[in-house]
Amino acid sequence: MAVTTVGVIINNAKLVLQEVTQAGTRWTNEELIGWLNEGYQAITQIKPDAASVNATHELVPGTRQEIPSDGLRLIDVVRNTADTSEKMGILVTTRRALDTTRRSWHSDTPSIDVEQYVFDDQDPTRFYVYPPATEGAEVEIIYSSVPAPHDVSKGLNGLKDDPIKLNDSYGPCLTDYILYRAYSKDAEHAANLNRAQMHLQSVATSLGQKIEVDRAISPNAYDNSSHPQRTRQ
């Protein structure tokens, strides 16, 4: 859970903007909090696992499934969790593989134990399972979810002690996103337009670097230590 608070992020942004009044003059606290909420959406669009959720998910009978309504996209289907299941792990496959080897797989005998799942990047909130799920089938899934927004109506005084809704490491990105939106408000001035673009580029650069670092230090990544985590293929 994050320890960085809404108050810290907003005050950091106000410091750069030189917005010294308590309620805000050119940029109100409510505007800045609204842009903080928007920042959550922007970051999770670029890096979905910034707000990943690991949850038990009850399946509907059949092959076609949908992640919870707060979900942005599926990340993984891990294992069976129903009490009467074998608790087996679940492997990802392709629709082509199933269609080629078992053309009628959608109408096969339903099971409480899912063995494989199919995901299509063009339909990120849905997935298919094989064998078809029966009533009571349940799996553990990992999915991306945009955090619920802060209630802007509470004002900064009511939200200042609330933790931000992403990991603390995203604090600088959130500050830069707020500054990008703030300077965009006065984008008719060339200097402010340039500053807005600078802060937007900083967000993109930070997220790009984080993606690379996360990939490099992942337990699934190959390394050159004496105990490599994975053998190079």
Provide a descriptive summary of the structure in words.
The chain has helices at about 5-15, 30-45, 95-100, 155-160, 170-185, 190-215, and strands at about 50-60, 60-65, 70-80, 90-95, 115-120, 125-135, 140-145. α1 (about 5-15) packs across α5 (about 170-185). With about 230 residues, it is of the alpha+beta class. The chain is elongated. The strands form two sheets. A four-stranded mixed sheet has the order 2-6-5-4.
Summarize the structure.
With 233 residues, the protein is α+β, with helices and mostly antiparallel strands. The protein has helices spanning 6-17, 29-46, 95-101, 155-159, 171-184, 190-217; strands spanning 52-58, 62-66, 71-80, 91-93, 116-119, 126-133, 138-145.
Number of strands: 7
Which structural class do you get from the secondary structure elements?
Answer: alpha+beta
Query: Poorly predicted ranges (pLDDT <50, ≥5 residues)?
Result: none
Shape label: elongated
Helix content: 25-40%
Mean pLDDT: 90
Strand content: 15-25%
Distance between the termini: 36 Å
Supply Rg: 22 Å
Series of secondary-structure elements, N-terminal to C-terminal:
HHEEEEHEEEHHH
- In DSSP terms, counting alpha (H) and pi (I) runs of 4 or more, how many helices? 6
Task: Characterize the main sheet.
Answer: 4 strands, mixed
Adjacency order of strands in the biggest sheet: 2-6-5-4
